[in-house]
């Protein structure tokens, strides 16, 4: 009976915790929407906490706050996020040249819109374009970004472009097919890494409010 009571207590504790700081993500092709409920935090408090987080995390001269309206509870920021890839397609010959260009496409301009109400806020995080020097791959790679699953049409275009480049490099059909078979895992990792990066940013904001909230009365 005692063990049962302990389990019941822990279940209630976890339920209370997650209901106080619940979240939900809606994932689209190049956009993620996160809704966060923070109990016992009114609109004004959330607005103040969120602005503090922005002042710490958006310090580059390239970051721009386009709107910051306390009355409507709307904040809009333009910034740049960077991702790093570990899944290499290949590193030999012509393949190495393509790989080097692909992994250089790793900085993206984004737009964040934050809407604030009592006890909750919403983040709309949208990728806008690539922010790297263009070696001819920026648009090709950006078109392949699909955070809610690989876009097979864009994947086919990606492989056709690679195939044409490899042909010019006198790469035989078997090796070209092998190369293209590895492009999907690479693009999957790219999409998953970008999505994780976006979620981490959103959770960083959420967690900063929790931490700030615990020290409000010092």
UniProtKB/TrEMBL annotation:
Signal as UniProt keyword: yes
Coiled coil: none
Top-level division of the source organism's lineage: Bacteria
Keywords from the UniProt entry: Signal
InterPro entries reported for this sequence: DUF4468
Residues spanning the signal sequence: 1-22
DUF4468 domain mapped to chain residues: 36-123
Entry protein name: DUF4468 domain-containing protein
UniProt organism field: Polaribacter marinus
């Amino acid at each position: 009976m005692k063990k049962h009571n302990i389990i019941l207590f822990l279940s209630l504790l976890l339920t209370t915790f997650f209901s106080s700081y619940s979240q939900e993500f809606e994932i689209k092709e190049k956009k993620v929407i996160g809704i966060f409920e923070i109990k016992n935090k009114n609109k004004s408090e959330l607005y103040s906490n969120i602005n503090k987080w922005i002042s710490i995390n958006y310090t580059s001269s390239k970051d721009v706050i386009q709107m910051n309206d306390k009355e409507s509870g709307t904040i809009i920021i333009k910034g740049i996020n960077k991702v790093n890839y570990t899944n290499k397609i290949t590193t030999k010959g012509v393949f190495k040249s393509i790989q080097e260009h692909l992994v250089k496409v790793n900085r993206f301009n984004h737009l964040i819109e934050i809407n604030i109400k009592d006890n909750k806020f919403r983040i709309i995080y949208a990728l806008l374009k690539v922010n790297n020097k263009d070696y001819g791959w920026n648009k090709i790679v950006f078109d392949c970004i699909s955070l809610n699953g690989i876009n097979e049409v864009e994947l086919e275009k990606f492989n056709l472009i690679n195939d044409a480049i490899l042909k010019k490099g006198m790469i035989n059909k078997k090796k070209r097919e092998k190369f293209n078979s590895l492009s999907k895992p690479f693009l999957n990792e790219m999409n998953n890494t970008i999505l994780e990066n976006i979620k981490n940013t959103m959770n960083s904001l959420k967690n900063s409010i929790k931490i700030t909230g615990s020290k409000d009365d010092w």
